[in-house]
Amino acid sequence: MTTFRIYLIFVLICLAGCGGGGSSSNNGSSSNNGSSSNNGSSSNNGSSSNNGSSSNNGSAGISNPETNPVSSPNILLILSDDVGLDVASNYSVGTQLPTMPTLEGLAENGLTFDNAWAYPMCSPTRATILTGRYGYRTGVLSGGDDIPTAETSLQDFIDTNVPNVYEHAVFGKWHLAGNSNGGDDNPQVMGIENFSGLIPSASGVDNYNNWTLVENGRRSQNQTYTTTKFVNLAIEWIADQDKPWFAWLAFNAAHAPFHLPPLDLHDRALSPDQSAIRNNPLPYYLAALEAMDREIGRLLGSLSSETLANTIVIYMGDNGTPGRVTQTYGRNRTKGSVYEGGIAVPLIIAGAGVTRSGQRESALVSSVDLFATIATLAGTATDEINDSKSFAELLAENTAPRRSYSYSETDANGSRDWTIRNSRYKLVQRLNAAQELYDLQLDPYEQNDLLDSGIDVSAIVTELRTQAELIRQ
Ligand SMILES: [Ca+2]
Q1: pLDDT digits (tens, 9 = 90+) for 308-320
Q2: Do 82 and 195 fall within a single domain?
Q3: Is the pLDDT of residue 34 over 60?
Q4: Which domain-ending residue is among 404, 429, 455?
Q5: Tens digits of residue pLDDT in 316-375
Q6: Could you tell me the distance, in angstroms and rounded to a whole number, from the CA of residue 415 to the centre of ligand 1?
Q7: How close is the Cα of 79 to the center of ligand 1, in Å?
Q8: How far is the CA of 69 from the centre of ligand 1 (A)?
Q9: Domain that holds residue 430
Q10: Are residues 355 and 451 in the same domain?
């Protein structure tokens, strides 16, 4: 067993609850009533136990399996790019899977969601998380759409409702900025105090090893592998925090261009030839995911055991796997589509307050729900706001309230498609096409349109269409 793996196991055990009974070690307010005892000063008086500059170096505390809810936990939101269920190693969809011990460890110690939906493309999913509103409301329905500055960001919402409690930052891919909303300054316009990542290139980078970094509006060229750089930035920023923090870490991995990641970040023997990558991109795409997993492990390993015990980690894919590297799903039912291959994404949550260790959850949840969920975790007591419904209670209680319907849509390439589902059935309405109905329990890959089956499903269709119309009012 490598040193890294031993270390990782310690980190994951810590996420399950080491570090002293789960009481908050964040300095500053731990109240959830909107007032703060942390008066907004950013004093660095040494009283903080939250910044965790030291790395874990022993086994102290790992025998405590309990993770009690904590007030004002640190929140680490990790988004991967173009990663559907077929390449998520703890879902049973694909056959060629990446080795991802960090995420598998999170799943073993946390809660895995089997029915999480996002939008079919990058920008719309990010906009739903940022605003808690569906794309047809914000206008962000396709890759590259600009987020309107009139929208209230999750970070602004937290700052307003639990003032002076959280520091927040976004690292990595933004994909919501353009000429209409401030360009490189858009994250600051949206209330992000600290942004370091990707803005200029529409979908990510042309080259993972040579790209334009934007740090609070300032551009510079960077030659560090993007996955590594974003983790470096997150580690450095977290180490400086003396208040509870909310870090949004959005990898551009494993979005195209398919490439050979640094050899020390994966164990695959792959040719660096571009022709080899072109001819069979899947192993390279998997290697990029393995590199991401290893770097997530490095990030978690950089946190002190005390900080880990007060941190909740949310991992989610932003949309389905691209057609060139998809498995199981049909070629035209991948990223960009409202079929499962486009919108069903991995979602794992572990850490502070997640007491349903190693369990799976079938509740319908959506990227739009992350707004209210994260706001609730931050102490705003936001069960529902805009289109967003918090599922924070599910992290500790499997009988918590849940959605009856989940919704997604796209307006890419003139498609203007939408879909809605209940716990079992899914209605698909594509532009200028007949509606389709699938039984996701019996037919998870949408092979058999029930509207072609001769079975009377009119009541189901009516129910779902009525609910969609209510959502889209
Ligand atoms: Ca994406």
Answers
A1: 999 999 999 999 9
A2: yes
A3: no
A4: 404
A5: 999 999 999 999 998 789 999 999 999 999 999 999 999 999 999 999 999 999 999 999
A6: 17
A7: 9
A8: 32
A9: 416-471
A10: no
- Residue 180 clears pLDDT 80, i.e. is over it: yes
List the CATH number of the domain containing 288.
Answer: 3.40.720.10
Looking up tokens 């962000």, which residue turns up? Answer: 140
* Span from the CA of 124 to the centroid of ligand 1 (angstroms): 9
Which of residues 31 and 69 earns the better pLDDT score? 69
Give the per-residue pLDDT at 1.
Answer: 44
In total, the chain counts a number of residues equal to 473
In sequence order, what are the beta bridge partners of 249?
Answer: 78, 171
Cα 70 to Cα 67: distance, rounded to the nearest angstrom: 9
Query: Could you tell me if 342 and 336 are in contact, meaning their C-beta atoms sit under 8 angstroms apart?
Result: yes
Residue 352 CA from chain centroid, whole number: 17
In a domain, 38, yes or no: no
Give the chain's domain count.
2
371 CB contacts (<8 Å, ≥6 apart)? 128, 129, 130, 131, 132, 154, 157, 385, 386, 388
pLDDT of amino acid 24: 34
Is residue 61 a contact partner of residue 346, using CB atoms and an 8 Å limit? no
pLDDT digits (tens, 9 = 90+) for 349-359: 999 999 999 99
> How far apart are the CA of 131 and the centre of ligand 1, in A?
18
Report the alpha-carbon distance of residue 193 to residue 378 in Å, rounded.
Answer: 16
Structure tokens at 324: 């060139």
Give the separation between CA 351 and CA 13, rounded to whole angstroms: 10
